[in-house]
Amino acid sequence: MKYLYVAATEEVEREALAAVTARVASEFALPVRSMELGSMEFAFDAGRRQYGSIPVLDMLLRRCPPDAGKVLAVTERDLFIPVLTFVFGQAQLGGRVGVVSFARLRQEFYGLAPNREIFLERAYKEALHETGHLFGLVHCAERKCAMSLATAVRHIDLKDDAFCAACARAWRRHPEGTQV
Ligand SMILES: [Zn+2]
Ligand SMILES: [Zn+2]
After folding, report:
1. Rounded to two decimals, what is the model's pTM?
2. Domains detected in the chain
3. I need a surface site. Which of 18, 63, 91, 150 has the fewest CB within 10 A?
């Protein structure tokens, strides 16, 4: 049995983590396990004051449990890749490991009043997006689809917390997509 692991770094808000884990489990209809990752400091870039998502994916590959089909890590830290100012997350296309960051999903990050509902909706969408990549889904031109590319939080807010029909069919065709 291969599991979808949702892996938490130590600083992650546990209530939001549990909600995201449940959402991903129900969408992909896969058995889910939890995993603790500890500190993210190994990925800290002092020059950028952000955390490298590539070292995080490397760490996940090293720590992948034998019964893990996929591992989605969740962090509160702000992630980047060298060519971009930031990323909401990153995942291997059709691979085993991905990461999603809550850092830029809260209204507070933009100087606005906290809104729990908005934050959780964004977290669901981005967790579905990165998990979709793990199942081989590429970016979708349908703006409302969870697989549409978001480079700003307003793009996330335009998306639905779901895949479009074409993307849903695509991941069900994936060899692991039908596993229960
Ligand atoms: Zn993407
Ligand atoms: Zn789509």
Report:
1. 0.94
2. 3-173 (3.40.390.10)
3. 18
